[in-house]
């Protein structure tokens, strides 16, 4: 598993199609040796793992996301991987029998200038009749740019841009946004030779109206990538202006009628009827034109302009000041004494270790998100002879029992006058921990309780967060760029992308 070229990450809301996908992977023409990470994004429900155990994928792992949306679920998935590439599949696609073999071939020959590889998508449509409006919408996925139904990225490229932007709450535009950020600064995205089938899922009468929520996401795209973002991702321009005029006419007609302006109400109503009728006919003309489809198109065409306009206005307001996405860091390193555990000067006794309240829960939240955690600690008592290296090892072992496991440990045993490059405020331990973890120091946060912790972070190129204690000097608090009341608050800020 450790030698696999890529991991496979599948966000899911527990659809039955997930089993079909996993069985296709398990029975393909080439045995899947890649880690397969299923991220359960249901807000609640029994664990999925036991229901999938009989499929026969030896590398399968199930994580829980808790309902944060597909962008967050994918982020949790890839952060738990360690392979060079990460390949994303949607839970309702069916890979071809040779998909895994072709995936390996697609990725193995790519140069360092390529950051992503897109698979090929087919959408089966019915024979003997024209497709419905819903079926035509799904068929558009076959030509979509950077669609995450089958998309692979270099893991270091994902880390560099912070992964998927979790402000996109649904499976819409989050793939185009990531593709733009990756291709802008990490490398090209190419199209591979592997194929998946994306069936048309069942829908109800009002699915097209609910889809209008995506208009809000379009305004986040415009804020982040400029007005020409559609051209760069080959996205159609849509009907937002027409929807606005139609909805405005309908609202004006109703207002004029209430105010007693009969002629204005009639003119506005006619304008609304023309706009609604034109939209309905465009959708009906391309479809099967049976009774159910015509009824559905008439009903939803009356509602869509109002829904689209509402969600557009909502997105314009909500995202008007949206900053670039940064995501969570790849690693968070903590000072030991005074930050993770209560400070006992020159402690060499494991029985005296007492974790700070809330620290274990905060660390577990980072781990659940896929953020790696480590410890960087000055232990000058070794250099001065107050404690032994064995004492430090015993205390660290106890901390690991209570708060671990940690992904990295860095200990400086030198006295303050030894002139080493590892003792904080020198950056040596932070650089060494990041090197051990394979992360860039710019994607690392250091949490500590005194100024030397933050000075070491700055010297290493990392971000420092101060969590003051009674031992913290006022001048250190005033000099810190980011101060939190405790470790829990610090982790809250980090997971919210404020670091």
Topology:
Elements: E1 6-12, H1 17-26, E2 36-40, H2 49-52, E3 60-64, H3 70-79, E4 85-89, E5 94-95, H4 99-108, E6 114-122, H5 133-139, E7 150-154, H6 155-161, H7 174-185, E8 188-197, H8 207-210, H9 214-225, H10 229-233, H11 240-259, H12 262-285, H13 291-318, E9 331-334, H14 359-369, E10 372-378, H15 380-384, H16 389-403, E11 408-412, H17 428-437, E12 444-448, H18 451-460, E13 463-466, H19 474-479, H20 487-495
Parallel strand pairs: 1-2, 1-4, 2-3, 6-8, 9-10, 9-12, 10-11, 12-13
Antiparallel strand pairs: 4-7, 5-8, 6-7
Low-pLDDT stretches are none
- In angstroms, what separates the terminal alpha carbons? 33 Å
CATH class of the largest domain: Alpha Beta
Count the domains: 3
**Averaged pLDDT, please?**
96
- Spatially, the strands of the biggest sheet line up as 3-2-1-4-7-6-8-5
Going by CATH, the homologous superfamily of the largest domain would be: Spore Coat Polysaccharide Biosynthesis Protein SpsA, Chain A
At CATH's second level, what is the architecture of the largest domain?
A: Alpha-Beta Complex
Q: What is the structural class? A: alpha/beta
What is the overall number of helices?
A: 20
